[in-house]
Amino acid sequence: MAALVGRQPLRSSWCVLSVGGAATWYDCLSDKPTKRAGRVTSSRVANLLRRRESPQRPTFLELFFDLVYVFALTRIVHELVLDYTRGHVADRLTTSLAENGETLLLLLALWWIWTQTAWVTSRFDPFQPPIQFVVLATMYGSLLLAVAISGALAETGLLFASTYVAIQVGRTLFFVGIVRGHNLRRVNMLALVWFVVSAVPWLAGALASEVTRNSLWTVALAIDYLGARLGWPVPGLGRSRVSPWAVAGEHLAERYWQLVIVALGETILTSGSSLLRGPIVAQRTMALTLSFLTTVLLWRIYFYRAGQILGEAIAASTDPGRLGRLAEFAHLLMVSGILASSAGSELVLMDPSEGAKPAWVGAILGGPALYLAGRSVFEYVAFARVSRPRSIGILVLAALAPIMVGLPPLGVAAAAVAVLLGVAVSDMIRAHGRSLEEASPPR
């Protein structure tokens, strides 16, 4: 779905569509026909848009949509665990990272589908039947993607690629049809051109050998991400110049923290299921306890102030588009870190006492480090600074990694918990006795 409209946050409901360098203004939230700058908006399309008085909180439909991503993220973690336990791969961290690159492709594809669905429900009213149809159809497509993950780089590659293309092209084509006669149609047509172009390497890669497939799918994802970043420029038609974060930053902020909750929920689901797949003995119970503590600490570190005021920071920013892109990147890093931590927890539950292999240490300590890196970017978005304890935590985790190789995985997991606990406690000490910090985004 294209980056459709932009709105001056907290000031008015007038939206700007910029195509080919010419800006056209229209009332994006009103349900009545409106005329400005010689253009008349469609009342039918305006009824599909979020109204001025509508709450910005995510709806039950969006929470229902997220249920598929609990399953999808579980499949990603399963692939990560396979990456870390595949023969010689577990013995060398660099080899494991190369294997993880294939799983990362699948995660980025799922991330892009989820992100664009969040954009759709930020602009359009989820209570309208056509929008509900789009969300539910995307939900079913996401379920097929999740099912195809386990063999996406082998026998189910065509199912994965064709479903991804069907979601992107089909959804955008649907909006081209239902916003006929409206300014939004041209923006969706721009996006449609890019999605059709990226469909070629997606489908060709599904039919190619593994090495070629990875290369073609990397090109396809680059086209999709770059197209959105540039506003889907098409010769003769121009580009869209407005970020979705300028439309409904508050709504998108809540959608992203809900995704973090989904990822944390996946960690609990995976660790609990892993415990049931073997004997419930003291060491494995301790491994489950450490996994739970890791999840709680990741949750606490995320929601400590910055996680509560992202919407305010976007609204206060002079460039919500740039800040929103940073927030998206921060959440991608954090979710990736949570999934790596979840894979690390499963590895500990599989064998808590034997010597930890380099790749296992990379998952158990690297997941929290990646999470803290994303949380640092997130803090910069909200406060234009990065707290020292987060940087120290990353450095300590990196320094511990070579020391921990060969030690019991249970001890490695305990070290990760200790570092995260130190970061969380430093947050509590800094906040003690002080009033809540207001958003102060970078200018």
UniProtKB/TrEMBL annotation:
Top-level taxon of origin: Bacteria
Residues spanning the signal sequence: none
PANTHER family xref list: BLL5714 PROTEIN
Protein name, per record: Low temperature requirement protein LtrA
UniProt-listed InterPro entries: Low_temperature_requirement_A
Protein keywords: Membrane, Transmembrane, Transmembrane helix
Organism: Micromonospora luteifusca
Transmembrane segments: 60-78, 103-121, 133-153, 159-179, 191-209, 282-302, 323-340, 360-382, 394-425
